[in-house]
Amino acid sequence: MSTIESTNANSPVGRIADSRTRKTLDRLKPYSPGKPIWEVQQELGLDHVVKLASNENPLGPSPKAIAAIEAALPDLHRYPDAQAVSLRETLAQALELSPDQLIVTNGGDELITLLSETFLDPGDEIVVPSPTFSEYEFGAHLMDAQLVAVPLAPGFQYEADALLAAITERTKLVWLCSPNNPTGTYLAKNDLERLLRALPPQALVVYDAAYSHFATTADDYTNGLEFVRAGLPLVVLQTFSKAYGLAGIRVGFGAAPEAVIRRILQVKEPFNVNALAQVAASAAIYDIEHLTASREVNARGREQLYAAFEQLGLNYAESLSNFVLVELGELAERRYHELMAKGVITRYGGAWGLERHIRVSVGTEEENKFFIDCLTQVLEETS
Ligand SMILES: *Cc1c(COP(=O)(O)O)cnc(C)c1O
Question: Per the UniProt record, which residue ranges are transmembrane (predicted)?
Fold first, then answer.
């Protein structure tokens, strides 16, 4: 028997492990990431594979971040700065906040877990829109808290009143992802403010602005930081994984009132953000050229995709982000696999309960074209 078999659930060792694990683990679903390029190349024997599945930056990392990483390599025998002092000062200056209003984390994902650990007791409730990013639910289950899902309105639009109606005296965290993953839709600034001002005292809003840099086409969008500056009860989540192109090094941050940050720091591990991530993020913030190029490529790419979808007669949700949710109908899952077989990795909507949709990340012009060509072919082949 191999080691893997001897630890599965039906073996004696597996049963002992099961009897000792926390009950809430049974509710944890594994995160399903976008397939990596090498895996699709190996499995399907393809040379040319384009990944449009994880909302990564198609231009690559900021060159300034790469230079900063290289310069930091000789000091890798040292532990990183546990408080990320230099990065927090840089961020504070760039965002007009105080360093005490900031916490740096091992990607935005770590902040989601830390917030869950800080605020959720068993039986507490979180309110989330549906569909949305799955990690909020993961955090709730991890802490044995309850999920209250509020469906988005038709067209995947946010409805502040529906969210407000779901908030009770048991609500601890209200997760608002804007632009929302996977729909690309957003919560208008007025609605966010109305919600913040109506919150019961035990509740806190987490405003996930992971994609805020791409929200270039709506005047009533906010990245939420103005409300942190105004002292309202919210945590703004940001990441370097998307617009800054640093998904592989894992760094993000939260901005919130100082009293909230102090509490989150109590559950943070000392060396949560590695030394290379800290210098890379500091450099990327000031790489305006890379950021501007990334936003422009994305804005043009979105239009390229919209035009193709219209040409093909497909419904899509207008996106403020770097991905587009498109409706392919009953055969969506099959078409997702057919696209993969042609070398385009997208994300099938099934995990979000969107069985008729796929989500496609905006790539470079050539990547988008390859996707559009493949999509056109599979639609012709299966129609
Ligand atoms: C990508 C993403 C994050 C954070 O990702 P990290 O790589 O962990 O920084 C947070 N929220 C949403 C909605 C995301 O899509």
Answer: none
